[in-house]
Request: fold
Amino acid sequence: MKFVSEIHPPSIIAIDGPAASGKSTIGKRLADKLGYLFFDTGLMYRAVTWLALQRRLDLGNEAAVTTLAESVPIEVQPASQPDGRSCDVIVEGVDITWETRRPEVDANVSAISAYPGVRRALSAQQRRIGQRGNVVMVGRDIGTVVLPDADLKIYLDATPEERARRRYDEIIARGEIADYDEILAKVIERDRIDSTRDVAPLKVAEDAIVVDSDKLNAEEVFQQILVLCKTTHRPYLGFMS
Ligand code: CDP
Reply:
């Protein structure tokens, strides 16, 4: 048996950033390229919000919403269908992936995500999955709170106008009706709630690399992040036989 010191590519990759900054698209592509698990944590907050609406809970009742988050297992799994989804969201055996994208979920998810008990319940599950490694995890607080020891932390940013334009294009591409000004107002409001909440607010982790995607297309952002993966290494110290 000999002691070895090697360098390995990043195993735990955290991507954070504001609403519609392209985290899911880029994160999924990166995970596929590396053969890693892609995990979109926003889907868990969306699932709790959808469930609370579905069960007609008073969304202002923090205790009731927290109990829901603690008691209903939300499974985020690799995408089973090529319909534009980045992951499957399964609750009690039912695929609710597209329900989590409904406008009423968009409108309420940031308020629900600000509840400390909801965050505690969901981030514990996210941490367990992230710590297994070989994962690209995206969200708002992955590099700061969920996986502060991540090997590579990226903060993907863009102006609200650019992000709203991308979200608008996505909705139109799905054949649905969209209003750009309304989307922009909602993006700005969600960012405001996400970055001013007391627990785990959206912010750039001290050791994160900020990628400004404003003047870059999806391919250019992807290539830039791939370079970061190739140039970031985690040390491996251990024994090999
Ligand atoms: O896809 P989009 O960027 O619009 O949002 P998302 O990533 O699906 O997240 C939806 C909402 O969940 C965010 O606006 C946050 O309020 C919340 N969230 C969070 O608080 N922490 C995370 N790690 C991920 C999402």
The chain has two domains: 1-36+134-241, 42-132. Residues 1-36+134-241 form a domain with the Rossmann fold fold (CATH 3.40.50.300). The first helix runs from residue 23 to 34. The two ends are 4 Å apart (CA to CA).
